Amino acid sequence: MKFRFNMAASIRFLVRRMVRDYSRNINCSVSCQIVRSSCPLNLSACRCFSDNAENKTTHFGFETVPEGEKTERVYKVFESVAQKYDLMNDAMSLGVHRLWKDMLLHVMNPQPGMRLLDVAGGTGDISFRFLDYVRSQEERVARRVAQANQTPSWQEISTSYAAPGQEEVEPRRSRAIVCDINKEMLKVGQQKADRMGLTSGLSWVVGNAEELPFDDDQFDVYTVAFGIRNVTHIDLALQEAFRVLKPGGRFICLEFSKVANPLLSQLYNAYSFQVIPVLGEVIAGDWKSYQYLVESIRKFPDQETFKGMIEDAGFFSVRYHNLTGGVVAIHSGFKL
Amino acid sequence: MALLRGVLTISRQGQTNRVSFVHEVVCVRQQHSHVDSSDSQYDRLYPGHIPTNPIQKVLLAVGSGVAALQNPYRHDMVAVLGETTGHQALTALRDRMKGDPEGCTVLTERPRIRLSTLDLSKMASLPDKSFGREYLRFLEENRVTPDSRADVKFVDNEELAYVMQRYREVHDLLHTLLGMPTNLLGEVAVKWFEAVQTGLPMCFLGAVLGPLRLSSSRLGPLVTSLGPWAVRNGRQARCVLSIFYERRWEQSLENLRQELNIEPPPLTVMATIQKAPSQS
């Protein structure tokens, strides 16, 4: 399984280069056939390097743009909002985004020793919370051990007699890796980490969610918070998530979703389209980026459709929890 | 759009002044350029236009007002405040310009004042006391450039948007005409003049709040001589937006002042370059 995916990745890279070096009008069927004969499993990967890469369109907010352009435009949006990103989040959601992220951690319930991959992690909110949570768990365990040591049971006394020279087994350290395609967001995140004094157990990696720079079966938890709707090919991101997770690993996604209640939906729409771009202009001096952000929320599939997409990628036991009436949803699935 | 930071160095060799111009082109990421390429979504009347409904305009006006008061160096917020509150004043200004033959020409030809459109070497070779030479001297003494004006975004009429843009670009020329530097006192004096001339609420706000930050030693001259002079001239002068400045560089400054009915300043306000940068 692993070998085939590795081969698929390298062949995909090779074919992509071929297509780029020669004329763009390579017959779609030819390039697709090259792919199909070598890796029959990756049929959907065909889409990203067929000759229709420029003719195929996707949505950028309410606009229609060629697929190749979307990634770059999203990059520019986040490059421009990076400095004021956290401030704007607090202003737009009146601080509620912190509760949503706390809820994500609660659902995740990480244990010490887990490895987290936080994709589109940007300014690092999830990773910081993960490390805090895990540290407090470790402290709780240490406290319990210390308490128990005050009144040791006969078993503990006997084991301490039995192996005096044995080394203590080092508990596995938890690690969080923040991966983002945008260097500006990562820079802001690193500055935040330095200010908070969080250095150990945290790494910052530049990478594309559709093509992660990690080996297979590496992580216990994969999270993506408010990032997956900006990815050009969501299905590829889900497949990559499946690949890098260990068997038994968990995929968790926190994302804006559809509000069911019609009254709340109207209020939410009014707020999104009237107030948020104004806040963007006044606080960050950037109306259009925030216009894009609220439009991209409307373009993202609803809870059930997204659940279907996650299941298509191979995850099991996919569930979602709605928060704030459906404004935000946490989707979770397991790789088994 | 490249933001040209012009650094002028003057070296005097005997009797001749040699102005050497050093361009430092700094590419500033234009925040809206990445969306400008496709304008299918918005019914945009001009490049950079963002259509807004009345609710959004009110929110913008309030928000930008608060932001500008909190941080007066946020020129973009002052600009937004001006755009969202200035509809009536802009209409009146536009009608005034239409009533003047030269103003009509300005409205039809739509000249823009930018470093790229100015022939700086030619302006530098003009005689002293000519309008063009004095404008150039103003730019270099105060270390400002005409390219730092924000584009108009929230005015929902194409012609009024041009009037607003023209107002912003003419601001530096007004400094030259009135002989005011870009320190706080100079800016307040120009604001008083502009408030009376244009009737823009943003100018009135600036004119009222500006003096609050002035030291008492400067407040005196403002209230006694500079202020009344600015107000008087604002009333009696021709509409400053109607003048086609780009064709008058060779005209002598005194001549131009007389034509526009502007008295020369009663006090000489020294340009103190260490002070605050130019405020719009």
UniProtKB/TrEMBL annotation, chain A:
It is a peripheral membrane protein. It catalyses: a 2-methoxy-6-(all-trans-polyprenyl)benzene-1,4-diol + S-adenosyl-L-methionine = a 5-methoxy-2-methyl-3-(all-trans-polyprenyl)benzene-1,4-diol + S-adenosyl-L-homocysteine + H(+). Pathway: Cofactor biosynthesis; ubiquinone biosynthesis. It is found in: Mitochondrion inner membrane. GO terms for molecular function: 2-methoxy-6-polyprenyl-1,4-benzoquinol methyltransferase activity. It comes from Esox lucius (Northern pike). Coiled coil: none annotated. This is 2-methoxy-6-polyprenyl-1,4-benzoquinol methylase, mitochondrial. InterPro entries: SAM-dependent_MTases_sf, UbiE/COQ5_MeTrFase, UbiE/COQ5_MeTrFase_CS.
